[in-house]
Amino acid sequence: MPFEEGQDHIVSAYRLYDSADAPVARLACDAGTFYGDHRYYSVALELFEAALPYIVRPAERTAVLSNIARAAAALGMVDRFKNVEDQIHADIDDPTEFTAPALIELALAANTLGHQRKSRAWAVEALRIARARGSRAGEEAALRTLAALDAGREPDTALPAPQKLQRFVNRFMRRLKEAVPARQAS
């Protein structure tokens, strides 16, 4: 989807919510994914990190963590990538519907950091899990990722966020930070 069209959708959805709660946090994650797809990894990472405290379901947290890993890698934040990679690795013994896509994100992040062997291993694990879960879409995504890696996929590179986008993301983050995270709410 073209950036301006997608951004208009994100802003419209943002305006539908009047407080920071789980739906707004999920919107922040969706927006972060969209921004990452357009290589605006710095704002994507900000949104993923701000939304994470509101995402309590373990499977969904794994998905958000994998997006954090990919954005961090694109921004050269090796320590943050490794921290998140360790958290996801600890959770793959009990795969969910989000595990294979999360491992694909890890594979792409590892590729960005120049870890080709690790990148391929994550993609192969994503394929194994997708097949074990009977996920045709997951299997196809893993196979596409492996083919791209084998063809020498270029690392992710970040673009600076336009000022207007950064201002919007700053407002979004303030809304998320003003609320009590779901894990602290009673």
Keywords:
about 190 residues; about 75% helix; 9 helices; single chain; Serine Threonine Protein Phosphatase 5, Tetratricopeptide repeat; mainly alpha
Under the CATH scheme, which class? Mainly Alpha
Radius of gyration: 16 Å
| β-sheet strand percentage | under 5%
| CATH homologous superfamily grouping | Tetratricopeptide repeat domain
Q: In CATH terms, what is the fold-level topology? A: Serine Threonine Protein Phosphatase 5, Tetratricopeptide repeat
Structural class: mainly alpha
Shape: globular
Question: In whole angstroms, how far apart are the ends?
Answer: 39 Å
- Unreliable stretches (pLDDT < 50, length at least 5) are none
Number of strands: 0
